[in-house]
Amino acid sequence: MEKTRYPVPDTPPPPLGECLPLWARRYGDHTALVDGEQRLSFAGLDHRVERLAAGLHRLGLRRGDRAMLQLPNGIGFVSVCLALFRLGVIPVLAMPTQRSREIEALCRLAEPTAYFIPATAHGFDYRPLAASIAATRPALQVIVDGDPGQGPSSFRALDDVDGEPARWPAPAPGEVAVLLLSGGTTGTPKLIPRTHADYFYNFTASAALCALGSDSVYLAVLPAAHNFTLACPGVFGTLACGGTVVLSATASCDVAMPLIARERVTHLALVPPLAQLWAQAREWETSDLSSLRVLQVGGSRLAPALARQLSGLSGACLQQVFGMAEGLLCFTRLDDPLNTILHTQGRPLSSRDRLRIVDEQGREVNEGMAGELQTRGPYTIRHYYRAPEQDALSFTADGFYRTGDLVRRDGDGNLIVEGRLKEQIQRSGEKIAIADIESQLCALPGVQAAIVVAVPDPLLGERICAFVQPAGERIPDGLALNQALSARGLGRLMLPDQIETLHAWPLTPVGKIDRRRLVALAMAADRAPPLRRYAEQQIRVNSAPLELAARLAGKLPTRHYTLYECRGEWSIGMDAALSLVVDARGTVHHSNGTSREGSRPCAGIAEALADIPFTDWRAYGRATFEFAHLAYGIHATSDGEPLLRLSIPQSEIRLRDGLALIRSLDPAALPGLAALVMAGDIPTRSPLGKAIGVLENREAEARFKQQVSAAVGEMQAGDYQKVILSRAVEVPSSLDMVSSYLAGRRANTPARSFLLRDGDFQAYGFSPETVVEVDARGQVSTQPLAGTRALAGETGEDARLQGELLGDAKEIAEHAVSVKLAMSEMSAFCDTDSLGVSEFMDVCRRGSVQHLASRVRGQLATGCHAWDAFEKLFPAVTASGIPKREALDSIRRHEAQPRGLYSGCVMIVDSDGALDAALVLRSVYRDGNRCWLQAGAGLVPLSTPEREWTETCEKLACVAQHLHTAAV
């Protein structure tokens, strides 16, 4: 039974705008907020909020207006929220991850007069988003926490919003104080109107239950716009008790756990997926977490096994939290028995919360039976904001909120959440619990996670569709999964009718799994016409893959092919069954005549590839350096040629030691391809032609050194931190591309190599690094190389040069900023707690050059794909500079001609979501009769023209010493 009650106070609570002055008088100089190195006392926060409120009033914000907040965790978020409360303006709390479609819908509903954004956060620039929203709302004022940039005149810096404090009329306790975003999955957004009175009770009663006091330190790692983080008890509950709130912009373990140790955090809230990652991180993250007293976990069901693991994580008391932004909150109590904490989601916060559990006819079920939870109480809403049709569905005639949650209640009044009401499947007249199937699937080897949805079916009524995330590289087989489920005792009616594989779940705007989208995916997969398949044939071969690949390239009956070496496989794609190209405007053109326009061509590419009518395909492609101009808003210099090309080949040959795999969409082509491979596998003496020399000239040297000096001067003036400038060297047109590729590859040790021909354009190269690698599981890596010395081929001299490299301050600084940028870029599309650096400052040997190398790794965040990674990481920092936009502009100004393929990439993309893009450096190019090499040097403020000229010479030597004419 209930051990402690927290009654609703009989006296009216203060309006939320009056809370901070009360707290400031009570707690004064005690630290209220910690944000990185910033610390703000209660008195300092109150002063800041007073002046900000006055400044907002000067801008025209008035009581009853709405203002959209899309700010990350930070002092800016808390200050703006409290300043709006002070004025009686209603904050509309949007999620930092929402983009134009969701924000536009929220603006139509809430009609805000102001929109608060960061300049950038997690690699995303919010200013173009805000500009697009403001373009259709001339009266909307955009206030930027950071640099407003070159936005419209309606953009203002938050730091510039200031005024003399005054007294503002206080709203009544029953007026709307804040609009929270509902966690539902319907397409139309729902806003939750919380009043001053009910929200004050929400966070003060939660704070009392969670034993918060002036010595408490709450770490906010989940978005502060979530009700859980903001008021359960969260940020406001902590401040109300005189405690300290530590604001973290990331939930990454390697950031947040040291914060716990540094600030002696006592209270922390997580959601189950994040809690699981944190638990796993304790295998390597050793920060002192002994200060933790309470670890809250809520937002979705917490598996008992994970609950048990978390209960021993740091000595903190585990507290399960079940509730909704609409109102009702349930907590396990801090003095509950362990069994209650592990297996239930607790009891209601208030003695005045009214709960009933009903069946489909709305009749209350017997004690211990499962049914839909309905609730009414002092802090639960009675309607949504401007949504009468939704209200009719969500509220009963007597004012109970239909939660849609399936729960049962134990003998002590604790709720056990069984799932969602719509998480039942009506299959052939039988009701089947989704949670049962999901838990059984998750217990199978090879399955990392599983989501089951009900899909409309003309025969069954609803069929069972299971989406599974594989735990390894192997894609689980549907038949084998159902056999394993049967072996575990699942009845025939509970076996999935359809099994699909996904590597990332689609999410709703508030970060919950979007089951409606999964249903749509299941229906689309069922309606899709049969996909064309490649016919395949394997042949045993004796030749080394490199030698055989070169022989085949010289004999291929086509002028359109790409050879790509990746991890011991030489893969050749020939002719195009279909192709995609991106033009200088960013439009994605499909060879079937369709096109996709938009501000993000990479998103258009991903959409186009999702519609490929083949199965198990591999695309071959290349992107010019100028493709990066699209992402950074720089006018793309173009001669009419596409900036990016991808083709799905008609036929393929893949070569590994001892084996050739031949593939073709035309089965009749296999015998001819097999004959070609077998003929190429016969050892023949292939003498090289005459060696070709490359001549340098003093005029080119002087011109390049002048460019270096100019760029170094700009960096020393603070314009940017790093840039790579390059120069081209002409080569006699008698060059033979295939034999020179073979000779160069024998002498080089690249990360990747390639040889391609597209009509009159040809290129080959030995890539020292990849731009980005994404595997089928969504694991991402990039390997920035920065810092260079020659390899002389003599052990003592090479060791001396390596020592010089490792001790050169300029080279180390250049490398460090490159790794830092890669980490920052990857945080935009990876789970932040998965990011890490390995192989830090290793010395990597690439042919006649040695480099400093590090590898940055991460896991794609839910909802992200390989093209998100490509968009952020291209062009490679090794070939552009820091910051990238300024470096791109510098390159455009200092280099006379567009780079084209040089420092762009050659890539392969697979149908399972994998992408491998090789940086095009150490390469040779032919376009018609013109042949040339190109090399660059990384410049930082410490660079000298002499050293950078030498670096380009060292890099050119990797390919220049292996150029040959055709054999006679």
UniProtKB/TrEMBL annotation:
Domain (AMP-binding enzyme C-terminal) ranges: 437-512
GO molecular function list: isochorismate synthase activity; ligase activity, forming carbon-sulfur bonds; oxo-acid-lyase activity
Domain of life, source organism: Bacteria
Keywords from the UniProt entry: Ligase, Membrane, Transmembrane, Transmembrane helix
Protein name, as recorded: Salicylate synthase
Domain Chorismate-utilising enzyme C-terminal per the UniProt entry, residue ranges: 701-955
The keyword ATP-binding appears for this protein: no
Pathway: Siderophore biosynthesis
Transmembrane segments: 71-94
Organism: Microvirgula aerodenitrificans
